[in-house]
Amino acid sequence: MRHLSLVLLILLLAACGGPTQTASAPKAAATTAPTAPTTAPVAPTAVPPSPVPPTATKAPATATTAPTAAPTTAPAAAKPANPDLILATTTSTQDSGLLDVLIPRFQTQTGYVVKTVAVGSGQAMTMGERGEADVLLVHSPDAEVKFMEGGHGTKRLLVMHNDFIIIGPPADPAKIKDIKSSVDALKKIADAKALFLSRGDNSGTDALEKKLWGQAGSVPKGQTWYQETGQGMGATLNVANEKEAYTITDRATYLARKKDLKLDILVEGDKPLLNIYHVIPVNPTKSPRINAAGGQAFADFMVASDTQKFIAAFGVDKYGTALFFPDAGKSEAEVGQ
């Protein structure tokens, strides 16, 4: 019995010793296990120098560079030292609607604020001589040459052309329809004493008309059948329409107002009827009020490639044909060919 108790005691002690050793094993394992993970993270730590993070760093740098370029140019052009600009121009560029779209484009691109004075070319040049305009857009070649010879303009740049046409009532009492020569057509109007409406405003159109009457050997002023409106092209077309009279007009203004007119194109395509437009910055030595930088900016805009393309397309969607044809960079001899 005593022997049995001794055996049991030994077994009990052995049992207690087993768990102690068993517990040690897990402890060692647990201690060793963390060591492996501790070494493993070293690899991820080395990853940042790899190509992936630098790529992420470069992307923002590229994004920062792109936006910087755009704003740099715009602010400089958007705030001229003297933003107020006076443009004296012929009424045809206004009545045709061309300036209604060109002026906002110019103002947006340059920051200038344009005051447009639409008068006859003669009046526009008088304004330039007096220093009352900064830049001219006109179509009276002979008068323009004299203007430049007088030292009133810094340069004269070819912009565009269209043509003049002789229009009248469908009944055509003077029987001029399809006559090739504009001079011969005016002779027939004078012979028939058919009512003719002249602008009589010293405009480019008025100058051309007077020149053609001279070539026809006629001085119609003072005749009952010859009347002057003293107004622009649009207003003269309205009066001619009401009175069923003949008149000479630029094609652009006629097409722009055709839906309200009962007058037909009767004579067209004659070379003397070519209608050429130039832009002329006014000479700043004529007056301290002249905005020379603004005048030059407008001239540059009118002959710029984008503007010339726009002029070529103007009116095509609405009238089926362009109202003006761009000519920047051409010689006078090449116009209309």
Q: Structural class, from helix and strand content?
A: alpha/beta
User: What is the count of β-strands?
Assistant: 10
Overall pLDDT score: 83
- Unreliable sequence segments: 1-76
Strand content: 15-25%
* Shape by Cα distribution: globular
Proper CATH architecture of the largest domain: 3-Layer(aba) Sandwich
Total helices: the number is 14
Order of helices and strands: HHHEHHEHEHEHEHEHEHEEHHHE
CATH class of the largest domain: Alpha Beta
Biggest beta sheet summary = 10 strands, mixed
Task: Put the structure in a nutshell.
By secondary structure, the protein is an alpha/beta fold. The chain is 51% helix and 16% strand. The chain folds into two domains: 76-162 and 276-329, Periplasmic binding protein-like II (D-Maltodextrin-Binding Protein, domain 2, 3-Layer(aba) Sandwich), CATH 3.40.190; 163-273, Periplasmic binding protein-like II (D-Maltodextrin-Binding Protein, domain 2, 3-Layer(aba) Sandwich).
